[in-house]
What we know:
The chain is mostly beta strands. The chain is about 10% helix and about 30% strand.
Amino acid sequence: MAPDEVEIVHRDPAFVVLQKPVGVPVTATKDRARGTLTEGLIRRLQAEGEPRPYVGVVHRLDQGASGLVLMTIRGVANRSLHRQFAEHRIERDYRIGVHGEVPDAVTCDRPLIVRRNERVEVVAHGTGGAVSAMTHFRTLARDQVRNTDVRVIRYALLEARLETGRTHQIRAHAAAAGFPIVGDRRYGSRDTDAFTATESEAPAPGLLLHAHRLRFEHPLSGERVDVVSTLPGWASTEAV
């Protein structure tokens, strides 16, 4: 990412909260070493006069998702923020667009296992090797419509709140609960595109998963920090 493409939503001398665009990885992956959010922030700090900037990643966000990512820019902030993350004290709210029949509210607490192919499997309680996971879902709007160049996508808009921060947790829990996220080919299916249009072989509309809000304790002062992102159009309750 170019330095001027890095969107800083909240800035502090010890940390920043960035808004990650769709398709940009937070850190280097096996398929992509350049153009990451971390690299963009380093270049942004260098352009501001930091000769050897420090950037620490507190948590990640799927490449296909968008929204808030917390990073440290001073090592002194690492210990507190990583502890808060490990102890599940960083509150994270997401907006997701899903298919299927959705209840007004539901909590999924089924454990997860990461398989060798990096796919996360939702398993029964007591399964060996599984880790605990809990996601709270709340329906914000039904019968939402998103118009694209070739598709009219119909979906329900939900808020997802994490109590744990496991790999692909929201995606796996939503699919297991019967309402997979739009555009999620890994945990949904081709039907996960949920379109009504003539060109059925058109590309998927993208993963409708957006990290909307972060709440945590300031790593130095202990004061409460509450950061809210700009919502993409599909994540608004007035998306029709």
